[in-house]
């Protein structure tokens, strides 16, 4: 890892860290180390908003279970649900269960939780294996490919389309939805996405929901339409928000879990050789990939319902607070030699999927996809290697994410 070029300490609380900077993107793990040591509660800036970020492992666990923090901004502050005005069509998409607290969060989660039974995930695994193999059939003759766009992105996209129940005629619109959610929610393009593209996505999703009402299938959207909790069904707006969340979480995170995990193996040839020699280590290897280089480095912010003091820092009532999972997963107080990539690490209580009541609902689905995608790629390509110098790989400047722009590889 490159040496940190941005000092972080208690003085940084007067000048919030710019998490969207190139410096932060390229040196985040070194900066995380400084934050844990010198400023475990630190103000950071994202899209003009100031947020209190917590970086130590135990503190991250504590804040997501602290009753003094609420996901619902109105509950905490009495203000609108979002810090910036949003069109109604976007509000309907964004008001999912991840911005709710119990009992509303529990009601919504219980309804979707039954659709992620182990049996349902196992039923999809064969299709993931078949799709991964077919994908390699099409790209292996090319030799040099982009791991991200040519292999990692198509797999979760196909899986989500399958479990949602997207029809063949809807696939072009669905693929466009995935593209917008993948590429259009960062930088200046976010303005076009919020005020134009998300309106079209919202209309498309409502069309899918309406079709499912008259044409049910063996898919999660049909299950959600039929589910009841305390005698009530999900409203169309709740279904819309749930569908949006499933696509966002199921595609974007899994894509970069696969990519980051494969890259970690290629950058640690001893561990790659170990996995090839001991394929039974694949489940342990996936957990270490998630800890060492998981793509999601923060959760949805919560808001202080009263003044909170942590490590001498006053977090005022109404202020947004976020746990830095990426920093917590490299905390030496929680992991022995945290900067060492060890596919046999045990125990490995990482926080890549969060913690507490908002623990990632699709964790087992994501694990299955990563496991099969990595296994299939390695089995088919014994001479797999990076096609560029690791120093030439570029990380995206996205706060609370660890993801690459492209990862050129040589198959074979």
Approximately how much helix is present in the residues?
40-55%
Overall strand count = 11
User: Can you tell me the CATH superfamily?
Assistant: Cytochrome P450
In terms of DSSP E residues, the strand content is 5-15%
**Strand line-up of the largest beta sheet:** 1-2-3-9-6-4
Radius of gyration: 21 Å
Low-confidence parts: 1-7
CATH top level class name: Mainly Alpha
What does this structure look like?
With 412 residues, this protein is α+β, with helices and mostly antiparallel strands. The chain has a single domain (10-410), classed as Cytochrome p450. Helix content is 50%, strand content 9%. The chain is built from 16 helices and 11 strands. The longest helix is centred in the middle third of the chain and has 32 residues, at 236-267. The model is unreliable at 1-7 (pLDDT under 50).
Labels describing this entry:
16 helices; alpha+beta; Cytochrome p450; 412 residues; three-stranded antiparallel beta sheet; globular; six-stranded mixed beta sheet; 50% helix
Topology, please?
Elements: E1 17-18, H1 22-38, E2 41-46, E3 49-54, H2 57-64, E4 69-70, H3 73-77, H4 88-94, H5 104-113, H6 118-139, E5 144-146, H7 147-152, H8 154-164, H9 171-183, H10 189-214, H11 220-226, H12 236-267, H13 269-277, H14 282-293, E6 302-304, E7 308-310, E8 313-315, E9 320-323, H15 325-328, H16 363-380, E10 385-386, E11 408-410
Parallel strand pairs: 1-2, 3-9
Antiparallel strand pairs: 2-3, 4-6, 5-11, 6-9, 7-8, 10-11
Helix pairs in contact: 4-10, 6-8, 6-16, 8-12, 9-10, 10-12, 12-14, 12-16, 14-16
């Amino acid at each position: 890892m490159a040496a940190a070029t941005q000092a972080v300490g208690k003085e940084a609380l007067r000048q919030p860290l710019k998490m969207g900077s190139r410096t932060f993107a390229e040196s985040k793990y070194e900066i995380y180390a400084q934050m844990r040591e010198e400023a475990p509660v630190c103000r950071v800036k994202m899209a003009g908003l100031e947020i209190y970020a917590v970086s130590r492992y135990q503190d991250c666990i504590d804040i997501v279970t602290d009753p003094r923090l609420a996901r619902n901004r109105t509950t905490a502050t009495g203000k609108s649900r979002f810090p910036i005005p949003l069109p109604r069509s976007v509000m309907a998409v964004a008001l999912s269960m991840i911005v709710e607290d119990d009992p509303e969060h529990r009601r919504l989660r219980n309804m979707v939780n039954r659709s992620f039974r182990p049996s349902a995930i196992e039923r999809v695994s064969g299709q993931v294996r078949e799709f991964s193999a077919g994908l390699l059939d099409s790209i292996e003759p090319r030799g040099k490919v982009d791991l991200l766009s040519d292999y990692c992105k198509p797999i979760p996209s196909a899986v989500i389309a399958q479990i949602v129940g997207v029809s063949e005629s809807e696939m072009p619109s669905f693929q466009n939805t995935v593209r917008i959610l993948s590429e259009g929610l960062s930088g200046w393009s976010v303005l076009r996405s919020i005020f134009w593209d998300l309106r079209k996505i919202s209309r498309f999703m409502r069309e899918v929901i309406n079709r499912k009402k008259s044409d049910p299938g063996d898919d999660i959207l049909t299950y959600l339409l039929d589910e009841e909790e305390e005698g009530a069904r999900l409203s169309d707006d709740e279904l819309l928000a749930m569908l949006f969340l499933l696509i966002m979480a199921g595609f974007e995170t899994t894509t970069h879990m696969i990519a980051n995990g494969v890259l970690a193996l290629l950058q640690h040839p001893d561990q790659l050789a170990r996995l090839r020699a001991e394929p039974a280590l694949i489940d342990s290897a996936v957990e270490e990939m998630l800890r060492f280089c998981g793509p999601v480095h923060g959760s949805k912010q919560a808001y202080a319902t009263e003044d909170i003091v942590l490590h001498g820092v006053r977090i005022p009532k109404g202020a947004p607070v976020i746990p830095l999972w990426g920093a917590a997963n490299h905390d030496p107080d929680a992991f022995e030699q945290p900067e060492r990539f060890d596919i046999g690490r045990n125990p490995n209580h990482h926080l890549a999927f969060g913690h507490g009541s908002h623990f990632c609902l699709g964790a087992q689905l994501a694990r299955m996809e990563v496991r099969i995608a990595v296994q299939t790629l390695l089995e088919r390509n014994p001479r797999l290697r990076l096609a560029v110098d690791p120093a030439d790989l570029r990380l995206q400047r996205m706060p609370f994410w660890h993801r690459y722009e492209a990862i050129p590889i040589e198959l074979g």
